[in-house]
Design brief:
elongated; protein heterodimerization activity; alpha+beta; Immunoglobulin-like; 2 helices; Ig_V-set; six-stranded mixed beta sheet
Length: 309
């Protein structure tokens, strides 16, 4: 009896474990479970990109698969009722089991994408996955501004800018096709240069221009999607022309002296004199009776030839 009892107990434990394992498998088999290979996806503009939505577990033969695009918090359908819709209608396809392939990525495709799978016959009938897609945009040719000529000892600034790239571009300057180090003090070749380069804004400032700073300059804008550059522009550096400045100042002073002397001579000759029109231009009014009146301060009355009795 004891042997049989122990035998029943030995058989009973594995059976319980098997039943428990079987019930877990049953629950798992009848639950929709999704996964993805990458929840944060980067893609280059004009290149294909695939958003993966892998069905790990499902029992329903024809599950309902949907993709939605969420931009600025607003969802819209991408794949609904077995067809692509929206702005991806002619640029995307659904691949087995539920992957979304965008054949020609655009900068407007940057958004959150949600894969939803529903299976009404499963114990867990629904699951979803969120995937973030960011489309990198290659920089366009940057706008470069290089001064044509500067003098030794002066300050100068070169500018480079581009507004289309995503992520924002970083900038690198070149002189005579040679890359300028961001910090000139790290290079023996450029150690004596006084420039400051800002790779984020594209600015290249010279605090004190030197003769060796002359040359052809161009700027390159780059990000993870690619790079592009502007046309090289020549910056010439001249010595400070002391004699030229002296003669220019002397010419200005001489011209001022001539103008001053000329004005004085004109005034001396009376061309610019002004008459007092207050009293000298006043005339005694004439009267129609043929009689002229004289001022009372003469003290008497005089007859003129035109006086008639």
């Amino acid at each position: 009896m004891s042997t049989c009892k122990h035998s029943k107990m030995a058989i009973g434990r594995p059976t319980a474990v098997f039943v428990l394992f079987s019930s877990l498998c049953y629950i798992t088999a009848f639950a929709v479970i999704l996964r993805t290979t990458n929840k944060d996806v980067w893609a280059n503009e004009f290149e294909p990109i695939e958003l993966t939505c892998l069905i790990e577990s499902i029992s329903t033969n024809n599950p309902r698969i949907e993709w939605k695009k969420i931009k600025n918090g607003v969802p819209s359908y991408v794949y609904f009722q077995s067809k692509i819709s929206g702005d991806l209608e002619h640029r995307a396809v659904l691949r087995e089991p539920a992957n979304l392939l965008i054949q020609n990525a655009s900068r407007s495709d940057s958004a959150l994408y949600r894969c939803e799978v529903a299976a009404i016959d499963d114990q867990k009938p629904f699951d979803e996955i969120l995937i973030s897609l960011a489309v990198r945009v290659k920089p366009v040719a940057p706008r470069c501004s290089v001064p044509e000529s500067v003098t030794v000892g002066s300050t100068a600034e070169l500018r480079c800018a581009e507004s289309q790239a995503f992520p924002p571009a970083h900038y690198q300057w070149y002189r005579n096709s040679e890359e300028l180090p961001e910090d000139p003090k790290t290079s023996t070749r450029f150690y004596n240069s006084s420039y400051i380069m800002n790779t984020e804004t594209g600015s290249l400032k010279f605090r004190i221009v030197k003769k060796e700073d002359a040359g052809e300059y161009y700027c390159q804008a780059r990000n993870e999607a690619g790079s592009t550059k502007c046309t090289p522009q020549l910056m010439e550096v001249y010595d400070l022309d002391i004699m030229g400045i002296f003669f220019k100042v002397l010419a200005g002073v001489t011209a001022l002296v001539f103008v001053t002397v000329g004005l004085c001579r004109i005034q001396k000759q009376g061309y610019c004199s002004c008459k007092d029109h207050g009293e000298s231009d006043y005339k005694v009014p004439q009267h129609s009776n043929g009689m002229e009146y004289v001022s009372a301060d003469e003290g008497h009355f005089r007859h003129k030839s035109s006086f008639v009795i």
